[in-house]
Amino acid sequence: MTDPTSSAPEKVRDALQAAHLYYLQDLTMDAIARELHTSRSSVSRLLSFARSTGLVDIQIKSPLDQISRVQRDIHSRFGVAAHVVPVPDHTSEVDRLERVALSAARILGTFFDSNMTMGIAWGSTVSAVSRHLVRKPTHNAQIVQLNGAGNTQTTGINYASEILRRFGDAYGASVQHFPVPAFFDDPNTKLALWRERSTQRVLEIQGRMDVALFGIGSPTAEVPSHVYTSGYLDEEDFAVLREQNVVGDVATVFLRADGSSTDISLNARATGPDFAALRQVARRVCVSSGISKLEALRGALAARLVTDLIIDEGTARALVE
Q1: CATH number (domain holding residue 26)
Q2: Is the dihedral of CA 300, 94, 154, 207 positive or negative?
């Protein structure tokens, strides 16, 4: 999204004036064009600029449509606030993810403000969200990485830091990286590093989170989950996950369909937050799209990891059927 502060002050002023006249005073574009001594097409561009830069935030609330009923059903069934994104059933999984990510990026700004800390779990879904963020300047805000990104092939720094940078730039927030691997080879190595003061500093920031943002990882997702396709797990690891009935992960911590995560051996080596700690965060925003992630999503809901769910319409319907 364009940063309004990087645009000419005259353009921002004109966009704000056009938005006030159009959205708050119900003037037509032709009437606004006459008042601003410009063309109708220029007014249209100013209104588009106001929307794309976050000067205008549009919300639609209807108590009558199918989406509202599905949202109520999800809240009744799972106790979470659902934000259902209308997407045609024939839409490809890639386009479905992009449309859900776009909506999530706009909703997220209402959850995050000055003097707050947001934890980010990297992944394909959160990466897509990061590309659509609407700028919202904050003061004394922090973005913190929730799980390590390194593996035997890469440090993961480029991938994870780019996602975090986009969030930091969008909100004017400082960024705290977590420079550890996604999975340690030995659980004892993790225990030793967790005692280090440099690691404890990041863990303490995570412990003060106001918002946690994550997607749902699934080994069967049609849009591949990054952790299952980019060298983080070997064949032996996949065999263990199948043997232990794992259906997916949240922030690289694995879970079963019933929400349980105990006795999953890879979790002893994982660097993501354990679920007991994650449940202490006041707002836990899960972004998910596609039926192929439904079983893993059910597991995350059973584990009570989610307070706010941003999801496409087809998957939302399947979730409550």
Answers
A1: 1.10.10.60
A2: negative
